[in-house]
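Course assignment 3, question 2. Fill in each field.
Student: A.L.
Task: Predict the tertiary structure for the chain below.
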Amino acid sequence: GEWSVSGYRANFDRTQGLTDISHFIGTFGVGIGDRVEVFGSIRADSRFRRVARPVFDPTSPNGGVLNEYPFIRDTWNDDGIGDTVIGAKFNIASEHRQQAAAMAIRAAIKVPTGDEDIGRSSGEPDVMVDFIASKNIQERVELSGFGGFLVRGEPTGITLGNSIRWGFGAGFPTGGTLKLFTELRGEVPLEDNVTLTTPLVG
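Answer field:
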């Protein structure tokens, strides 16, 4: 029955096109019963700057297509709404039930609400499934980690790569009104290439 909201900016840099990706995001979460949390993440503003010139250059190591956003074909796409993620987390074990650690399964889907024509979305849904574990150490620090899979939808004319997702984090102190969170996360691609059967023109 409890709920939470948050807002933040997320920034990523990609080698392909020397691309800067910036999202301004709002999130919400609602607890249902003792074991389920429903959550959502809305990219209220997504913007991309592709620095490499020309936009696509097959002779350059930076000239490729982005796996997450293959339809970025200009140097700047201005501001606009991006994709939305909705999902649920299902608790398997919990320390408050006197179990050794907290464990959960998280499933989410990316809804392609961004404008595909200017590159803010692939235009297809993605599916993510993760296993999560966390442990509170002496009421001082909470350690957590996750591992899972990301299956990307395939737009017409493009075959995108799927990935193994992973991440580790820590939050401290576990009590009090002010907490510090730190996180390291990444993806391991299962395919080496983005395959185009229809040409993209920059």
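Instructor remarks: The chain has a mean pLDDT of 93. The CA atoms of residues 28 and 137 lie 27 Å apart.
Grade: pending
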